[in-house]
Amino acid sequence: MADATQNDNGATVGDPTPGWFDISTPDSARARAFYQKMFGWSVHVLDETYSVVGAEGAPPAGGIGQAGPDSPYVGVVVYFPVPDVDAALAHAVELGGKRVMEPQSTPDGRIAAFSDPDGNTIGVMSP
Fold it and tell me: What rounded mean pLDDT belongs to the chain?
């Protein structure tokens, strides 16, 4: 994950390189097959609802998940590293964004998602 810091205004600054991508779809098996064929991705199926994507022998770069009726989003979401997921989510709301997925813990850290003022869903992640 790229390093990020906060400036005096609480804004996250640093490397804008995404730390993760997530493809949320109503048919994860179909999406898995499509992206494997399209890009030659190595996909490791964790269970019937989620797979991780990455080069052989390297840490995963993203995932493909099954969207259900309670899924916070459908489509592609890019996650950017931030020092503090809760603070970043609160800052997004202060700037006119809306909470899409509340902060939650994963095996690799914490994640959350918000929509920007144009409705784009963006994720944030921290260790």
Answer: 89
For the segment 35-77, what is each residue's pLDDT rounded down to a tens digit?
999 999 999 999 989 999 998 888 999 999 999 998 988 999 9
Partners of 106 in the β-ladder: 109
| Whole-prediction pTM | 0.83
Cβ pair 113, 77 in contact under 8 A? yes
Please give the Cα distance from 8 to 6 (Å, whole number).
Answer: 7
SS (H, E, C) the chain: CCCEEECCCCCEEECCCCCEEEEEECCHHHHHHHHHHHHCCCEEEEECCEEEECCCCCCCCEEEEECCCCCCCCEEEEEEECCCHHHHHHHHHHCCCEEEEEEEEECCEEEEEEECCCCCEEEEEEC
